[in-house]
From TrEMBL:
Record keywords, A-Z: Disulfide bond, Hydrolase, Protease, Secreted, Serine protease, Signal
Phylogenetic classification of the source organism: Eukaryota, Metazoa, Ecdysozoa, Arthropoda, Hexapoda
Segments forming domain Peptidase S1: 35-280
Subcellular location: Secreted
Similarity comment text for this entry: Belongs to the peptidase S1 family. CLIP subfamily.
GO cellular component, one term: extracellular space
Signal peptide segment: 1-19
Name of the molecule in the record: Proclotting enzyme
Organism, as annotated: Agrilus planipennis
One GO term (biological process): proteolysis
Domain of life: Eukaryota
């Protein structure tokens, strides 16, 4: 009798755990073997990773957030916006082919699926010469139901992102101005406080407001970072049920993995109303908004924020990672 009760309790625990656990953000397989300073992801670990292909090469990354929608950086379309303005027959939807299920761009892979885009949404307030609102959506021409979308955050984070560990993925250069990687790579990065991020931007001679709706990640000691070719790709944080949540989009940086410099990522939680509105326009189901847990003592980090004294410094040039 006691053993039957124990079995029933275990079954109930498993049932309720499955009920609470989201279907999005589930990686395939285990971690790969140990971007700049990164390591190979391992075959098909992140089914939501999207490669934006231009003339046979990876131009930018992206993430599948619904079975028909890929999210990426607006600046990935920056070189082509003037063509749209000056040529009525040219459309942003014609720029990229989206590859899903890709792990190695240097060889043929049976599981890769190719998609055209039927609609591109660039944020209404994006200005191509200023790194604000660096976010875009690409609606696929058909459903990608065999691929698991990544989870999106909810706006009510428990304390925000400060001190969290994140994961970045991409096919970008393995060192500054170096060759792109054949295989999808990932790296662990630390998400820095808003104060540290703005201070870093100020030290480069740029406007700290560049990170008003963004955050910084990497290591001030250098060695690990995103680089050219990683633009638009994901920064992921592990949620409370083990699912991967898309918290950031690779936006810009200053060199790659340089000491005292960090990568800058569009903060997804700042753009949830915009994302929801565009998905509603396309009649796309919205079920992947997941709340993540918080690591670290965020309140203490926020107390350290203070008014920054501006000094004249040599200005570092912002570098987009396409």
């Amino acid at each position: 009798m006691n053993s039957n009760l124990l079995l029933l309790c275990c079954l109930k625990t498993i049932y309720y755990s499955l009920q609470e656990s989201p279907s999005c953000g589930r990686p395939y397989g285990g971690p790969g073997p140990k971007i700049v300073g990164g390591y190979d992801v391992g075959y098909y670990k992140y089914p939501w990773y999207a490669a934006l292909i231009l003339e046979g090469e990876v131009f930018c990354g992206g993430s599948l957030i619904t079975t028909k929608t890929v999210i990426t950086a607006a600046h990935c379309f920056k070189p082509f916006i003037s063509l749209v303005i000056n040529n009525d027959s040219f459309k942003l939807e014609d720029v990229f082919i989206v590859f899903l299920g890709i792990n190695n761009v240097c060889r043929y892979e049976d599981d890769v699926r190719k998609f055209r885009t039927q609609k591109v949404y660039i944020h209404d307030d994006y200005i191509d010469n200023i790194p604000y609102n660096d976010i875009a959506l690409a609606v696929l021409h058909r459903d990608a139901s065999t691929f698991t979308p990544v989870c999106l955050p909810t706006p009510n984070h428990v304390g925000g992102l400060d001190l969290k560990e994140g994961f970045v993925e991409g096919f970008g250069a393995i060192f500054y101005s170096g060759p792109d990687s054949c295989t999808l790579k990932e790296a662990r990065v630390l998400i820095y406080s808003d104060y540290s991020c703005k201070k870093m931007i100020e030290n480069t001679g740029n406007d700290p407001d560049y990170v008003k709706k963004a955050f910084c990640a990497g290591y001030l000691s250098g060695g690990i970072d995103t680089c050219q070719g990683d633009s638009g790709g994901p920064l992921l944080v592990v949620g409370k049920h083990g699912e991967y949540v898309l918290e950031g989009i690779v936006s810009f940086g200053f060199g790659c993995a340089e000491k005292d410099l960090l990568g800058v990522y569009t903060n997804l939680s700042e753009f949830l109303p915009w994302i929801r509105a565009k998905l509603k326009t396309e009649n796309v189901r919205q079920e992947n908004f997941i709340e993540t847990t918080t690591l670290g003592d965020v309140k203490n980090m926020r107390r350290r924020r203070r008014k920054m004294k501006r000094r004249k410094r040599k200005r570092f040039q912002i570098m987009y990672y396409y």
